[in-house]
Design a protein that fits this description.
With 240 residues, the protein is an alpha/beta fold. 62% of the residues lie in helices and 10% in strands.
């Protein structure tokens, strides 16, 4: 009981239909984590969490995982690309936790980043209702940039010892080829996501302050849309 009260004081709960998830996507090195972390550090509301905090909350409070989300986990982990990667499975667990804590969540490393587009397509085609429910209140902010600009950021991170993407083990020419290939695959995924999830793109090369301001405006508008939908559904129930 004490843990539940304390968690709700620290992270105020919202109604399921009013909570939302902002998922930042883009190729490794484009700046997802930097933008997401800055937005969370500048947040005005304590109800905004990261996915790691959401998972800790689920574990601490022993929040039960709904059957449909267990089905999502079982379906996605039936693919070797997810099943054989401990990182992917952890990311998926965080994504699921983000959807059951009824808080607003910012995710910089979601399953949308790790899941190949063919698996997402299968998910939508084979389990359309489950797909729609899982991503119902998800807003995707897609960071885009040229391979050359991304590589400049990667090189800076390599020098600073902060790169975790494996780029440091290759030559400059090989790295550029890797980035170009990742951008190409990312573009394919983006085409699919735009057809099924609310997506807004932002240029990663913009100054950080401009990106933060733009994202805040995008998220505010998305939240308004969710609130309108929720109020409309509530009115329909009351009118019955």
């Amino acid at each position: 009981m004490f843990k539940t009260v304390l968690a709700n004081l620290l992270f105020p709960k919202r109604h399921d239909n009013q909570s939302f998830i902002v998922s930042f996507i883009g190729v490794p090195g484009v700046g997802k984590s930097t933008l997401s972390h800055r937005l969370r550090s500048n947040r005005m509301s304590r109800s905004i969490l990261g996915s790691s905090s959401a998972l800790k909350l689920v574990e601490t409070l022993n929040i039960p995982v709904p059957l449909e989300y267990k089905q999502v986990f079982n379906f996605l982990t039936s693919y070797p690309e997810i099943k054989d990667s401990e990182l992917c499975k952890l990311v998926l667990l965080k994504d699921i936790a983000a959807r059951i804590v009824h808080r607003n969540i910012y995710i910089d490393e979601s399953i949308l980043n790790y899941c190949p587009v063919h698996i997402l397509e299968d998910f939508y085609n084979k389990k359309p209702d489950l797909f729609k429910k899982f991503f119902k209140s998800t807003f995707v902010i897609a960071l885009k940039d040229t391979p050359e600009n991304i590589l400049k950021k990667v090189n800076k991170r390599i020098i600073e010892g902060k790169d975790k993407s494996g780029y440091y083990s290759h030559t400059e020419k090989e790295n550029l080829a890797i980035v170009k290939n990742r951008v190409k695959e990312y573009e394919k995924k983006l085409v699919f996501l735009k057809s099924h999830i609310k997506v807004r793109e932002i240029q990663a090369s913009l100054p950080l302050s401009v990106k933060i301001k733009t994202c805040k405006s995008m998220i505010k508008q998305f939240n308004k849309t969710l609130s309108k939908d929720f109020n409309a559904r509530a009115k329909n129930v009351l009118d019955i």
